[in-house]
Design goal:
The chain is 38% helix and 15% strand. By secondary structure, the protein is α/β, with parallel strands linked by helices. It folds into 2 domains: 201 residues, NAD(P)-binding Rossmann-like Domain (Rossmann fold); 134 residues, Rossmann fold. Strand 7, helix 6 and strand 8 form a beta-alpha-beta unit. Helix 7 packs across helix 9, helix 7 crosses helix 10 and helix 11 packs across helix 12.
């Protein structure tokens, strides 16, 4: 059995893709088994070999005592017998699933697997992708027969960047396999590192679908809050005041408006929309939620422009500071951050916009968005946008904002951090 071979270190486990998902997996397994950590990014590998997590999620203690070899050598993968694939699955510029990198990874793994080996996918995909797209690649390039010569499964990741409570070992893990034997072995392997328990999905498609709807549910609910925020703004009432009042009912779901970015909620629903279209069904609710949430950056920018014009300011001569560019609070992750939509929209209007963030890595912002982070804010801004609820921002008071702004300045508080605390500034929040 593959489980016994892994535990006895007679076989090796490989994790392909060492980002937010793959690295925690690799290090957890490396405390129990012999692990090969594979990634194509040599700069990332150099940091990992020094015990540094480039994503700033794990400390050096996570690397201590780990039986792991970090490599970019595909040939090294031939030493493994259990493969976990955790590479990014983004969308393209048309919001269609881009699985080109995923299929390329499967081609590489196909050249390394042998009889009796296991391949498990963790990346988010649409239901049916593992069996219809990925496994045929394994068969084609390995010459082996799925189910007979090698086993496969799907176990969706549930990593939440910045969350120190719901970690890999503390969240129930969904697993699925191509048959009952595969399901049992995969469950036992993951059971070594997940203390909260294993949920055995009845099929691979069910596991794939479960992952997607976890994020669709949040996306649609946040979209509802964003739409209500737009309506309430026209009524002249504060959305957070409304939510606080409604929240006194025992069964009210406490979602709030905001910018929806990141690698999951802002991307995964498009995989379901794609699959629905393939089945000749037009998804109205999911698509509407995506439209609303994707448009919020532009909405915030336009709202600010109107307020500045209302104060008699010429947009072409205004200076605006944006505090926070990551996709959520207290992390360095800038992937699919909608804050940059606000910046680009304001710059299109002619405003001079500066951005700052205590967590974002300047090199990453420069490479991904072509923008520079400032180290210290100035004192002559016409508006300040606090777009992310970093802990460092929660203690800022009105004196701070007044010291960095001109007369008749606007404070845009996207997350409602300073509600009821600002009196000398024009204040607006979602």
């Amino acid at each position: 059995m593959i489980y016994n071979r892994l535990i006895g270190k007679e076989a090796k486990l490989a994790v392909i893709g060492l980002g937010y998902v793959g690295l925690p997996l690799a290090l957890e397994f490396a405390g129990k088994m012999s692990v090969i950590g594979f990634d194509v990014d040599e700069a990332r590998l150099a940091k990992l070999r020094s015990g540094i997590d480039p994503s700033c999620e794990l400390g050096k203690e996570a690397f201590a005592g780990a039986d792991i070899e970090f490599t970019a050598s595909v040939a090294k993968l031939q030493e493994a017998s259990f493969f976990i694939i955790a590479v990014p699955t983004p969308v393209d510029k048309h919001n269609c699933p881009d699985i080109s990198n995923l299929l390329g990874t499967f081609r590489s793994v196909a050249k390394c697997i042998g009889p009796g080996d296991y391949v498990v996918l963790e990346s988010t995909v649409y239901p049916g992708c593992t069996e219809d797209e990925c496994v045929p690649v394994l068969e084609r390039y390995s010459g082996l027969k799925a189910g007979a010569d090698f086993k496969f499964g799907y176990s969706p990741e549930r990593i939440n960047p910045g969350d120190r409570q719901h970690t890999l070992r503390d969240v129930v893990k969904i697993v699925s396999g191509c048959d009952s034997d595969a399901l049992e072995q995969i469950s036992m392997v993951y059971g070594e590192i997940v203390k909260e328990g294993i949920y055995r999905a009845p099929s691979i498609k069910v596991a794939e679908a479960a992952k997607i709807i976890e994020n669709i549910q949040r996306d649609v609910n946040v979209a509802l809050m964003n739409e209500l925020s737009i309506i309430f703004s026209r009524m002249g009432i504060n959305t957070y005041d409304v939510l606080e009042a409604a929240g006194t009912k025992w069964n009210f779901l406490k979602f709030s408006p905001g910018l929806v970015g990141g690698h999951c909620i802002g991307v995964d629903p498009y995989y379901m929309v794609y699959k629905a279209n393939e089945l000749k069904y037009h998804s109205r609710l999911i698509s509407a939620g995506r439209f609303i949430n994707d448009s919020m950056g532009g909405y915030v920018a336009k709202k600010l422009v109107k307020k500045l014009i209302g104060l008699g300011k010429s947009i072409g001569s205004t200076r605006i500071l944006v505090l926070g560019v990551t996709f959520k609070e207290n992390i360095s992750d800038i992937r699919n951050s909608k804050v940059f939509d606000i910046v680009n929209e304001l710059r299109d209007y002619g405003a001079a916009v500066e951005i700052s963030d205590p967590y974002a890595v300047p090199e990453d912002v420069r490479a991904t968005y072509g923008m520079e982070l400032i180290e210290e804010p100035g004192n002559d801004y016409d508006a300040i946008i606090v777009s992310v609820a970093h802990d460092e921002y929660k203690s800022l008071d009105e004196d701070f904002f007044l010291s960095h702004t001109r007369a008749d300045a606007v404070l845009v508080d996207i997350k409602g951090i300073y509600r009821g605390k600002m009196h000398g500034l024009e204040y607006w929040s979602l």
